[in-house]
Amino acid sequence: MSQKLSVRKSVIGALAVGVLVALAGCAPTPQSTPEPSTAPVAPTPDPYAGPIAFVGDELDWFLLSADEIAAMLPDVGEVSPAVSSLIQVSDGGGPEPVPAICSALAAETSLGSIGARSVTWTTAEEGSDGWLHVLQFADEEAAKARMDQYVDAAAQCVEFEFGGPATFASSTAEGDGGIRALAGSLIITYSTGGGHSLYKSYVSVGNVIVEVWQPFTGEPAFDAEAAAALLRDRAEEARRMLIDKLTANPPAPVDTPAAADPAAPWSAWQITPVGVGPVQLGVELDEAIAAAPGARIQEPEWEGGPTRLIAADDSASLLLETQEGGTLVSALTVGIANTVGDRSDDGAALPSADGVKVGDPVSVAVAAFPEGTDLRIVSSGEYFYESSTREGVTLRFRLDRDSVGDDGAVITGITLEDATLRNALIFG
């Protein structure tokens, strides 16, 4: 090989090595592969552990379907859709049972309730409908006190006297969270003739009591044990649903409205969950009266009766009711209250509730306070639309006629009540 060729090869080789070295020097430095990032995980909220208090359409969670009602009770006919209304008779009277606690079984469960959902159905006996009521009470304590009496009555009234011989054969069931259910057949035979035979069932959880009853004739054909178990299971479902709802969306604290001006026209005062203008619920009567300086005071017509405040210009009035046997203000009313001394004040001069005034059609109240209850009291011929809070405060719009199917019923009075201040009904 010639020297030139050898040199040429050496030069080419050196160039090749130089190129490789240069290319190696230009190569990017290897980068480490980044670890995939993970989104922050929101902490799981602790389960809601506050009061078990149902309100509004949450009462629907307790309802039974038509098939469930027909499986629970014999001779069930046509089942009507659930409605947000309640009919109370509230006439009282009748013989006194022995033991006295047995009167709980004959009294209306809805007495003292502040919200309801109702279902009715026909039975084999014409004119003897069955009923299911889901009833909201002021708080857990009120519902528990009532259910305690039903449990006591079931234990003490297997055989009793109620204007003649009477019996109540029942079964009970218990569930989580203090749930109690009982169901049985109540048979009352009056010594003067006649009587009543009813299938009766109850379940309680939190501030709710569910009542089911149906008349029957002849011998009872009712599986009380299965009925109590069904109502218990439905109450457990409703309780779980409420806990899940309030865990995801904890109830907000009740807002304290801005202080009202006592010197302002009463038409400027607002009806809020805490009171009417500067006059508040839950305070001593003297303190409530002092909150409206310049008002004329109309003393009670009887001991423990309501006190009326009348505006200095005589344009408006406010009725103050106190807790039975006490001096705390439990209810405040503008407009008609169906009591002695009622005045026909112009609704434009009275306080209002979220813009709802005396003289408005009930449709205005329903729009401002949805998910309420239409209430009819047969014995006194009274009609209301009531809306209650989870805390047991109820706003009751008195109407000039039945509002079921009539959006034009006129508001004649507005009552704000702290139902937690009611005294419990005691049977026996």
Task: Explain what you see.
There is one protein chain. This protein has helices spanning about 5-25, 65-70, 140-155, 225-250, 285-290, 360-370; strands at about 75-80, 85-90, 115-125, 130-135, 160, 165-175, 180-190, 195-205, 210-215, 270, 275, 280, 295-300, 305-310, 315-320, 330-335, 375, 380-390, 395-400, 410-420. It has about 425 residues and is an alpha+beta fold. The chain has two domains: about 55-250, 3-Layer(aba) Sandwich (Protein Transport Mog1p, Chain A), CATH 3.40.1000; about 265-420, no CATH class. The longest helix is centred in the middle third of the chain and has 25 residues, at about 225-250. It comes from Microbacterium aurugineum. InterPro entries: PknH-like_Extracell_sf. This is Sensor domain-containing protein. Keywords: Signal.
